[in-house]
Amino acid sequence: MTAAEGRWKRRPPPDRAWRGREGRTRAQAAEEQDRAAGGRQVRFVDLGDGRQACASIYLKLLPKTRRIRAYLRWSDRGRSPARYVGEVEHETRAENLAQGWLLAVRRGLLSAKPPASVVESMAESWASSPAVRSVMRANRGRDTRPERALRSAVHALGLRYRVGVRPLPGVRRTADMVFTRDKIAVFLDGCYWHGCEEHYRPARKNAEFWSQKISSNRARDRETDSVLRDAGWQVIRIWEHEPAREAAARVAETVHRRRSAASKLRSANN
């Protein structure tokens, strides 16, 4: 059961949780979206051919299930495409818009990832309850833009792999890319969530909570590396800010080196 289901099981969400104020001007609507996103610069989506569009988060109530869904919506040559980003569960529209934008960021739906400071401010604006923190902990941003870029670059080098699987079936650790036969696990780490020394900036609000959260993530990463290595796996960690081609070259080098070593060992045993 989601937080929204539990909260609105016996009553529908209030209008203030999702409905926009009547009589708003276009400028006021844009200002509302800018505040929720953390700035106008965050709100753009890539249309291809070098074109971009300024998007908005649209909230829709599903009366039968009493859930509020958030969609990323924009205009493109007379059409209004939309992408579902997730469910939101707050009592106010402002908080739900902010949560929607954060979900869009984590899913890699925007043209460029905002600076860590902007992501922090977006997270701080709605991660104020245990229920919401639970959603945040579960949201790893599957299929983000950096992940897709890395996969494409590795695939272009002629390598094949599995995506989003556990290297060790009995251990709850999921790698972004896995070379099963070679026993190589690749993790693409987000700069904020994994405490990148180059880009991570401590949060100004709820500093203790966020510091503990990032420290816990880093400790879990070290534990994951240790468990996999003890089981004979090679672990590769890549920061999301690393150029995809350079990271892919590092992955390919490791794969070829490990395959070469395995081949020599087999020859020696024959």
Explain what this protein looks like in three dimensions.
- The chain is of the alpha+beta class and 270 residues long.
- It has two domains: 3-138, no CATH class; 145-269, Endonuclease, Chain A (3-Layer(aba) Sandwich), CATH 3.40.960.
- It has eight helices and nine strands.
- It has helices spanning 3-7, 26-37, 93-106, 116-126, 130-138, 145-156, 207-230, 244-269, and strands at residues 44-48, 51-54, 56-62, 67-73, 82-88, 162-165, 175-179, 184-189, 234-239.
- The strands form three sheets. The chain has a four-stranded mixed β-sheet with strand order 6-7-8-9, sandwiched between helices.
- Strand 3 and strand 4 (67-73) form a beta hairpin.
- The protein starts with a helix and ends with a helix.
Write the layout of secondary structure elements.
Blueprint (H helix, E strand, L loop, with lengths): L2 H5 L18 H12 L6 E5 L2 E4 L1 E7 L4 E7 L8 E7 L4 H14 L9 H11 L3 H9 L6 H12 L5 E4 L9 E5 L4 E6 L17 H24 L3 E6 L4 H26 L1
Helix pairs in contact: 2-3, 3-4, 6-8
Quick recap of the structure?
The protein has 270 residues and is an alpha+beta fold.
Number of strands: 9
Strand share of the residues? 15-25%
Biggest β-sheet: strands ordered side by side in the sheet: 6-7-8-9
List segments where confidence is low: pLDDT < 50 over at least 5 consecutive residues.
Answer: 128-140
Enumerate how many helices there are, as a single number. Answer: 8
Question: Helical residue percent?
Answer: 40-55%
Provide the residue-averaged pLDDT: 83
Structural class: alpha+beta
Q: What are the secondary-structure elements, in order, as H or E? A: HHEEEEEHHHHEEEHEH
- Termini Cα gap: 56 Å
Shape label: elongated
Q: How many discrete structural domains?
A: 2
